[in-house]
Amino acid sequence: MKILVLNAGSSSHKSCLFDLSQGAEGAAPHPLWRAALDWTHQQGKVELSASGAGESIQQVLSITDKAKGIEAMVKTLVEGPTQVLGELAEIAAVGHRVVHGGRHYQQPVVIDDEVKATIQSLIPLAPAHNPANLQGIEAIAQSLGNIPQVAVFDTAFHSSMPEAAATYPGPYAWVEQGIRRYGFHGISHQYVAQRAADLMGEDIASLKLLTCHLGNGCSLAAVTNGVCVDTTMGFTPLDGLMMGSRSGSVDPGILIYLMRQEGYSADQLDTLLNKESGLKGLSGISNDMRVVVEAMEQGNAPAKLAIEVFIHRLRREMGAMIASLSGLDGVVFTAGMGENSPLLWRQACAPFEFLGLRLKAELNRAKDDQDIAAMDSAVRVLVVHTQEEWAIAHSCLSLLESKHA
């Protein structure tokens, strides 16, 4: 069974094709084909890149319509040097990453008109993401016709949190309005938790894991027996950890102060907190930790402060997640920073040596998933390359097989 996965964003689209004819067990395989659209660099044009059949292409197309861009991307599956299919009809289903499923969806679901209407109704909770996800769903319908499409929700994995973890301490009306901690990066957290259990040779149902998704967006999850019991992101992806350009949690009184004293509007606060804060805001340099660390090593004081604040807040939230777990068997690092920064691994784990957590003397980035804990460590520490597209394809296969069972 060949499954196409589409991750549609507001300014980029990423897609993969997997062959699941041999099932979906074990480590994630390389996709047969991978492609991306980037709308950010050239006004009125889109940059298309694709790779498949051992070949790759890069094109700049005079296209502004997202649906036509997706159509052009899909055509590279059956045309040109990256062709891997004889015809598009070989695709059995399409899986979509949908950021927000609200309280409606705790599992992947086959997309129909009701599902699309619900995703539409949740746009106020994810205004930068759900519209793009819907657009991708409609574009696939135009390109591939009446093919089964499956929505896999980034919030679903966190829907198992107890009410005490999900509820904000505002008026009870917030509960009735659906203002609660939803959490995000759930597809990634779920995948890396299961992958860590496999690497540890343990049943995930017996483990207490702290998963750390540290990319431009950052979040932690406390996973007990394969179930999420707490997470750092909240009603929106802005809550929790300091991130690349997002502030993470701040005193709400700061926002009231800025509105009253500086005349900030809601849109200005949105831009300030989401695009001008975090590593980028504090360092004044970049949202890329590698760039900020380089500046710190050259003596840049704001860059040094940015790194120190990032590490402090990461450690603090890790401690909170460990408390929610009531124990710790493993820590898992994933995503851009989490997969590639030995400095971050060492700094993040240092305060937890009292739990018997010890890292290897030599830490190096690796192509493969790895255990970076010392042999005598009481807690395993793993670096796992997140495979969200594969997890989505796997979810599609499981759902469709259950429908035909």
UniProtKB/TrEMBL annotation:
Which residues of this UniProt protein bind ATP? 14, 213-217, 288-290, 336-340
A Gene Ontology biological process noted in the UniProt record is: acetyl-CoA biosynthetic process
Q: Where does substrate bind?
A: 97
The annotated pathway is: Metabolic intermediate biosynthesis; acetyl-CoA biosynthesis; acetyl-CoA from acetate: step 1/2
Enzyme kind, highest EC tier: transferase
As recorded in UniProt, its EC number(s) are 2.7.2.1
Q: Which UniProt keywords apply?
A: ATP-binding, Cytoplasm, Kinase, Magnesium, Metal-binding, Nucleotide-binding, Transferase
Q: Cofactor comment in the record?
A: Mg(2+). Can also accept Mn(2+).
Q: Where in the cell is it found?
A: Cytoplasm
Example of a GO MF term: ATP binding
Q: Which cofactor does it need?
A: Mg(2+); Mn(2+)
Going by the entry's taxonomy, the superkingdom of the source organism is recorded as Bacteria
Please tell me one Gene Ontology term that the record gives under cellular component.
cytoplasm
Q: For the site Transition state stabilizer, which positions are given? A: 185, 246
Quote the catalytic residue positions.
Answer: 154
InterPro entries xrefs: Ac/propionate_kinase, Aliphatic_acid_kin_short-chain, Aliphatic_acid_kinase_CS, ATPase_NBD
Membership in a protein family: Belongs to the acetokinase family.
What this chain does, per the entry, is described as: Catalyzes the formation of acetyl phosphate from acetate and ATP. Can also catalyze the reverse reaction.
Quaternary structure and interacting proteins, as annotated = Homodimer.
Q: What is this protein called?
A: Acetate kinase
Organism annotation = Phormidium tenue NIES-30
Q: Species lineage, top-down? A: Bacteria, Bacillati, Cyanobacteriota, Cyanophyceae, Oscillatoriophycideae
